[in-house]
Amino acid sequence: MNFEALLTCISSGSCVVTQISTALIIGMLLFMVASGLSLIFGVLGVINFAHGAFYMAGAYFAYAAYQLTASFVVAFLAGAVGVGIIGVLFERFVMSRVYGKDVLMQLLVCYATILIFDDLVKIIA
What we know:
By secondary structure, the protein is mainly alpha-helical. It has 5 helices and no strands.
């Protein structure tokens, strides 16, 4: 580790602000993922490891909307609405069939969803 660069960064006020804001942003993202997993498991009793795939889909929708409109507000709304629609459809047609089933079945369905989302992004991008 380069201690000279670390000392230079600590003495610079802008570097400290950048590090603190980066840590807060990463912490908030981890909190969103963890609270989503906890909420879904607590309410539905399903271990949904496809949660990250839905975050990826929302980011993909937001990026596509931003490229079309150059508006952050429209991109944010498009990402939220797009992933909300996909989430409702996923819950109604896929996850509702595995409620009350074995945990392994739930994990397999979620893992298959991750693979499907990943391949769809590779095909589209």
